Automatic annotation (TrEMBL):
Protein name, as recorded: Sulfotransferase family protein
Superkingdom field: Bacteria
SUPFAM superfamilies attached to this UniProt entry: P-loop containing nucleoside triphosphate hydrolases
Length: 380
């Protein structure tokens, strides 16, 4: 049975990708030198979360369930970390089930919080990249007027802590505030490392890879593509495999994305008021606060440029034409033999997979991938 289990449950858009890159990039070091297990792969954690929450886009063919993931943690005699920013959206009943699956282990919940000024535009963009079609103004209006309670329930630290943290002693609830823009890139990891009890300099760190935000023209183009898709690729995995891979990652993210946008100055007073309410609520909530609650207070200057809704059709059309040209180049690259393709991340991964298949030890055995992945099961 694990000694302690740390559940990093979100929220989305709070540096989760960076934390997860450090965790899996240093899984062997954490296991061997600190006794901290990061079981299997990020995909396993994502699918375990989807199974726990019983969402429609859970992929049963993955073979990963919450119980299977929890079983890997339970089999480890030290500490374990499970990380999925989707866990924070679990209901109270689902959270109780998750906590109960670790038996007598000491379970900790880690929630990260970020200021609303940065969170709201990021969350709308993330929803569009997840196949939504609503306009930016409609999203902001729904949040402001209380017609979109899911935003508050699934993306804000105070509500996540109420659903998960209330089920645990105060000392086992942790809130990490996301550092402001311009802070040292490793500060978020230092805060996270302190919670899970490992030296902040134990892991090899690289500067975080930017999760590229699309510009106003690019995200509006994607929104209109989502509308035109209708019932095509209705679920998360097929959409990611096709639209995210071949349109967003391969083309839209490669554009200049120069036209930035954000919440207009007309909503500044509302955002500041809500932020003060959240800070007051969290200050009164008994938990371990790592960082400074003042970092949840927006300090950004309002963006004055046009929002995606305000762009003229001619500008969106120009972006669409450039995107088609980019997709033609992407398609041409895919038609080339593997050896001649540009060495992008996807092609490098394919090359590694091909080399792995061809790796033979003394001419007798193909190397088992389980040898390289902590917690992986060997092939029968």
């Amino acid at each position: 049975m694990a000694r302690r289990v740390f559940l990093h449950i979100g929220a989305p858009k709070t540096g989760s990708t960076y934390i997860q890159n450090v965790l899996w990039g240093n899984a062997d070091i954490l296991r061997d030198r600190a006794g901290v297990l990061v079981p299997h792969t990020l995909y396993a954690h994502d699918q375990g979360m989807a199974d726990l929450r019983e969402v429609t886009w859970y992929d049963p063919s993955s073979g990963w369930t919450w119980d299977r993931l929890a079983g890997l943690a339970n089999a480890w005699p030290g500490d374990a970390v499970i990380s999925s920013e989707g866990l924070g959206a679990a209901t109270r009943e689902q959270a109780a089930r998750a906590l109960a699956s670790f038996g007598t282990a000491e379970v900790h919940v880690i929630v990260a919080g970020r200021d609303l000024w940065r969170t709201l535009p990021s969350m709308w963009q993330q929803s569009i990249r997840g196949r939504s079609t609503w306009r930016f103004e409609d999203f902001l209006s729904a949040v402001e007027k209380g017609r979109y309670q899911a935003f508050w329930d699934e993306h804000t630290a105070d509500r996540m802590l109420r659903r998960w943290g209330d089920l645990l002693p105060a000392a086992q609830r942790h809130l990490i505030t996301v550092p402001p823009a311009g802070a040292p890139y490793d500060l978020l990891w230092q805060r996270f490392a302190g919670v899970i009890g490992v030296p902040p300099d134990l892991c090899r760190l690289a500067a975080p890879t930017a999760n590229v935000s699309l510009g106003a023209a690019e995200i509006e183009l994607l929104r209109r593509v989502n509308q035109a898709l209708g019932d095509l690729y209705p679920h998360r995995v097929p959409y990611q495999r096709v639209v995210q891979r071949h349109l967003v990652d391969a083309v839209l993210k490669q554009r200049a994305n120069a036209l930035r946008f954000g919440i207009g100055a007309d909503r500044a007073a509302w955002v500041l008021s809500v932020a003060e309410e959240q800070i007051a609520t969290l200050r009164d909530y008994p938990c371990d606060i790592v960082g400074d609650l003042d970092e949840l207070r927006p300090v950004a200057v309002p963006v004055t440029g046009p929002t995606p809704d305000q762009l003229p059709d001619t500008q969106v059309l120009e972006a669409a034409i450039d995107t088609i040209v980019g997709m033609l180049g992407h398609a041409a690259a895919l038609d080339q033999p593997l050896e001649k393709r540009p060495p992008g991340p996807l092609n490098r991964l394919r090359g590694m997979r091909r080399r792995l298949r061809n790796t033979v030890t003394f001419g007798t055995r193909v190397t088992d991938p389980a040898d390289r992945v902590p917690g992986a099961r060997r092939r029968a």
